[in-house]
Amino acid sequence: MRLLRLALENWRGIEACDVRLADGVTIVEGPNEAGKSTLVEALLTLVRELDSSKKQAIRAVMPVGRDVGSTVTAEIETGDYRFVYSKTYNKSPQTTLDVSAPRREQLTGREAHERAEAILNETVDLALWEALLTEQGASLAPADLKNSEGLSNALDEAAGHATTGVEDMDLYDAARAEYERYYTPRTGKPRFAQLEQDHEAAVAARDAAAAALAEVERDTEAHESLQADVRRRCEALPDLEAKLREHEASWQSVTKLRQELELAEARLANATDQQVAVTRALEERKALADTIATDEKALAAEKEKQQPLAERATELANKVDSARLVAEDKRKRRSAVRVQVGAARRDLGYLEDRDRLAKNEQRLKDHGAIAEQLKQTSKTLNDIAIDDAGLEAIRAASHELDKAKSKRDLAATAVTVTAEESLDFTIEDEDLSLVKGEAEKRYVASGLEIRFPGLASVRIAPPRTAAELESDLSEAETALASALERYRVQDLAEAIEQNEVRRSAEAERQRLRSRAAEILSSGGAEETAEEIAESVRSLHERCEAFLQHREGQDGLPADAAAAREALSAAEHALKDTESEYETAQQREADLRAEHTDADAALREAKEALIGREATLKDRQKRLQAARAETPDDALEAKAREAAAAAGQLEADTATIRRRLDELDPDSVETLYTNARDAHARAERDLTQTEQQLAVLHDRLERAQADGRYDALETAERRVADTADELATTRRRAAAAERLWTTLNRHRDAARQAYVRPLKEAIEKLGRIVFGQSFEVAIGDDWKLEAVTRDEQTLPFEALSVGAQEQLGILARLAAARIVAEQGGVPLIIDDALGFSDPSRLETMGAAIAAAGRDCQIIILTCTPGRFTHVGSAEVVPMARGG
Questions:
Q1: Residue 246 phi/psi, 5° resolution?
Q2: How does pLDDT run across 670-707, given as a tens digit for each residue?
Q3: pLDDT class of 550 with cuts at 50, 70, 90
């Protein structure tokens, strides 16, 4: 099959386009939204859909905002046929087919669709065509080739087997047709399920009829049993009623005694509460009288304890005043010594600052001298451009020049002119004169012309190698001159001399920098010259200020050491006075703490005395009030009366409880409850049994008239008939399935042999892309499973996205080449190789070009230049909107 032309009108965003396709590789280039993928969509729609289709996908191809028909036209060559096939969808739908070979045919409408479909089914392996199609966004998926009969036949020939004959195919088709009479082709489900259902329904109907008949027999037995049960229950009911009345009377006696017991217990509880209240009141009054007597004794003891506490507090107050005076005298002495220590410390600070000032002034002077020397050394270095790398570069260039000269001299032609008489002549443009016996020698590397005015011209052309060496010499001279100019020297000797000067200057600069660093860090910390100068200024100002503000110069120590000795003596004196002051302070604090404790104890005793007096008065008042309300003897008499009443009520309650226990109320209640439940259950069971008896009686009457025996005989005959028909069908289905399975098993075995030529075809193209070590492993379903490169094997899923895409394209190219001799199918590749690097695009281009010599390939791309390396391709540009 060859696509010769594809045209669209009013299809999505395309107003009109007409693309002619080459026999080999055609590349359709255009930007996004230009409609490249729309070409594929339109071609598939032409082949698959009627012009009358109302599918959503068909309605979607109509241009937005325009009520027009969408037309697709394809010119196709397949087998012996050549035709133009066209369809218009949505608005004014129509189909036309114009066949020009092998004989002229012109058809329209449904007839044209069916004729085109018949031609394509006859001449094209449509399953292979759709499997090879690489639609946009799906190029990574391996092609599903196993259902292609065309590829199977081509692989069969490539594998060395005989092509399947017409008789074999007729047998295969007949077996498939017979198999599909009994089983669905895709799922293998039986088509005689209705027969099975009919048989199952007949069995179920027979079982239901038998069950219905058995139900009548069971109902008859149950009716007789229920009649006997009703008679038995009616006879037992009077005895149950008598027992219920007997146990109910006993229960009423128990209930009455329980009510009497509850009333007696309530009276006893009330009397007990009254007894407890009177007893508690009597106990509380006795306890209050005892507490008052105890409080009176404690109050007298507290009054006796207060006098010693007051005397102790006064004595301690006097001692605190004396200790305070001693501490104040020690504090004044400490302050005077502190003033002496401060003066000695300031003198020492001044003398130390004076020493640091002298030292920093010397450091600043030394650093300035070093900085001046560094300035001179840096100037020397700035004037020198050469360094070790530069010297090596000049040496290398000089060495190369010497080598070039030597090679030139060895290869050049030596020309010597010797004058036998005085002679004037010209070498190139240089005029020369020689006297008798003189000679002029030249090396000719690139050609030389010698002219003897008025006599002759001599042209000397040395070998080509010498000319090339002269060019190398010129390049070497240029390189050396460039290096000398870059490093500002005249020759190699000056470069060596300048480099030695530079090295000495760098060593001196390093020594000076180290010395400067030593000077800057000699103060104990790293400082800059500016920081040292600032320190000198600050120290000078501080020393001047000290001398101006110090009172009297006579007491100033001779040096810092003497000042330290004076400071040490003053600090020792200060330490002694501080110790004496702290001792005095501690003595005062201890006495003050004792006084505070004594004073607090005195105040606490006074407060406790006041509290005890108040508490005692309150308790005395409460006791007097209680006795005024109820005298002690009256309260005691009331307690005796309450105890006697509670005792009598307790005896009455015990008598009632004993009578109740004798009746055993729990047993009486259990017997009464059981008798009541037994009577109620007997009545309920009788009612239910009578209802069941009525239902069975009604069901038996209806069963006598519904013909259940006849229904069972009819159902048994239906079961036998359906069983025979189902068994016959199952035998035929099993035979058809066995034949179909056997044929397919042999066909699958043949398919496995096809793997070798398909594998070889993929590897032949793959070696163009991945190198000579490229191999593939293909499964029984003809899909790529693994790839081997450089003795390393990886599963297909473990490859990079780019490699998977490239292998998917190569497998499709290989399949298209294999079926090409049988007419083949066009291979359409839409928007592929977007994950490939430039080197892979080159080798993939070569592989596509190689396959394009055997089959038709149509490539759609939005990236101009991606398929530049497909050398034999024809490029068709496509703009937006067609």
A1: -60, -50
A2: 888 898 888 888 888 888 888 887 887 777 777 666 66
A3: confident
pLDDT computed for residue 152 by the predictor:
56
Helix axes 632-663, 193-382, angle to 10 degrees: 140
Q: How far, CA to CA in Å, does 165 sit from each of 153, 162, 169, 813?
A: 10, 8, 6, 27
Q: How many domains does the chain have?
A: 1
User: Residue 417 carries which side chain, given as an amino acid letter?
Assistant: V
Angle between helices 801-818 and 708-770 (to 10 degrees): 100
Q: Is the peptide bond before 190 cis (omega within 30 degrees of 0)?
A: no
- Let me know if residue 133 belongs to a domain: no
State the residue range of the domain holding 452. 417-461
198 located within any domain = no
Between CA 635 and CA 645, with CA 640 as vertex, the angle to 5 degrees is 125
Three-state DSSP string of 685-699: HHHHHHHHHHHHHHH
**CA dist., res. 118 & res. 105, Å (int):** 14
Sheet with strand 423-427: strands edge to edge: 430-434, 423-427, 448-452, 456-460
Residue 192 CA to residue 726 CA, distance in Å, equals: 8
pTM above 0.85, yes or no: no
Q: Is residue 453 part of a domain?
A: yes
CB atoms inside a 10 Å sphere around CB 230: 15
**Tens of pLDDT, residues 86-115:** 999 999 999 999 999 999 999 999 999 999
Specify if 858 maps to a domain. Answer: no
Q: Which residues make Cβ contacts (< 8 Å) with residue 443, sequence separation at least 6? A: 408, 409, 412, 413, 414, 415
DSSP letters of 58-91? HHTTSPTT----EEEEEEEEETTEEEEEEEEESS
Report which residue type is found at 582.
Answer: E
Encoded tokens for 38: 């729309």
DSSP assignment of 705-723 equals: TS-HHHHHHHHHHHHHHHH
Are 779 and 789 in contact by the 8 Å Cβ rule? The answer is: no
Q: Which residues contact 733 (CB under 8 A, 6 or more apart)?
A: 182, 183, 190, 192
At 614-627, the pLDDT tens digits run 787 887 787 788 77
